[in-house]
Amino acid sequence: MANLEARKHISPDSGFPIALHPNFNPKIKNHVPPDPVREEFQPPKDRASFADPEKKSLLSVAKRTDLTESIGTVLENVQLSQLNEKQLDELALLVTERGVVYFRDQDLTTEGQVKLFEHYGTLDKHPAQKDVKHVIIQGSREDHREINKYTPWPSGDFHADTSFEVNPPSYSLLRMEEHPEVGGDTAWVSQYGLYDSLSPAMQKFVEGLHAIHTSRLQYDTILDLWGTGPNRPPIDTHHPAVRTHPVTGLKALNVNGGFVTGFAELKKFESDKLLDFFQYHIHSADDHYVRWKWAVGSVAMWDNRAVVHRVIPGTYEGNRRGIRTTVFGEKPYFDPQSESRKQRTGRIKKEKEGLNGSAPNGTNGTETPA
């Protein structure tokens, strides 16, 4: 495992060394978390598995706009609060395929958001949150400056929500209640695309590794900066560095800069260098990247098994406050027989060409007469 202490003095936003405040000490001393470490469990079957592949019920009422070829879709002319169960299942399927789906001008309340997300499974509880049903995401210019100066806050970098859990979240939904006019955007990167972008040799190598996801940095920051006691002890969990998505069946990279500290099969020096590579790989993936400008009433729903995300660094005027709900997913696994998105696209193209009887040079599989 990469040395955690070595990351203590590194800004998660810039990677440059920072100096801790001389009087920087945990606000809570000798904290004993009230809840035990979570054990693995089997969540309900993913609601996307019940959806119509063509999503006719949802797309008959919503206007769909894909923001990039790889990731990100906006749905317009629809209120999440009005969707029926069939449409919610189709929304989940769309999210598994596109990574993240956005909505504007939503009338959801916190109660309605919680009820909506209970359709997708058992609600997760963030290690720092008091309410089991949702977590408040908030910040200000002053908060951002303090985090950058004094903490190793892992969510400052690309991450999947609480990926250190034995059963990490599948879906997350964030609804913005308060937001500045400029700044505070969020970016997402496709983990399908990140895997596809690797060379075949690197893909094969990484498929044999397990990434070490830790909650220790987050645990320390909750004590140091938030002045609240985490609900559970810090943990380190080994998950496949490449995972198979249970709904799409696609391979996705399962490494992120926020919570991954090393690889179980490698020496520390090797782990550190490979993490450096993946940091560059994630941050330079412009063709698999999407950025969302928030406004009050905006909503994003994403699949933590298919994307990583981060708030864009910077300072902004005013406050930023949102309500996030998540649901438990399955324990990550890797199926060697699964395929990548690029492989599936190529296979489907060949199958269609075969059905159409097409062949190179328009010969339809026959030789050109002499």
UniProtKB/TrEMBL annotation:
The UniProt record lists the keyword Membrane: no
Q: What is the lineage of its organism?
A: Eukaryota, Fungi, Dikarya, Ascomycota, Pezizomycotina
Q: Which Gene3D superfamilies match?
A: Clavaminate synthase-like
Keyword Iron belongs to the record: yes
Which parts of the sequence belong to the TauD/TfdA-like domain? Answer: 64-325
User: What domain of life?
Assistant: Eukaryota
Q: Which UniProt keywords apply?
A: Dioxygenase, Iron, Metal-binding, Oxidoreductase
| GO cellular-component term (any) | cytoplasm
Any one GO MF term held by the record is:
2-oxoglutarate-dependent dioxygenase activity
The family note in this entry says: Belongs to the TfdA dioxygenase family.
Protein name, please?
Answer: Alpha-ketoglutarate-dependent sulfonate dioxygenase
Region Disordered: start-end pairs: 1-52, 329-370
Q: Which cofactors is this protein said to need?
A: Fe(2+)
| Bias (Basic and acidic residues) | 1-11, 36-52, 338-354
Q: Where is the composition biased (Polar residues)?
A: 358-370
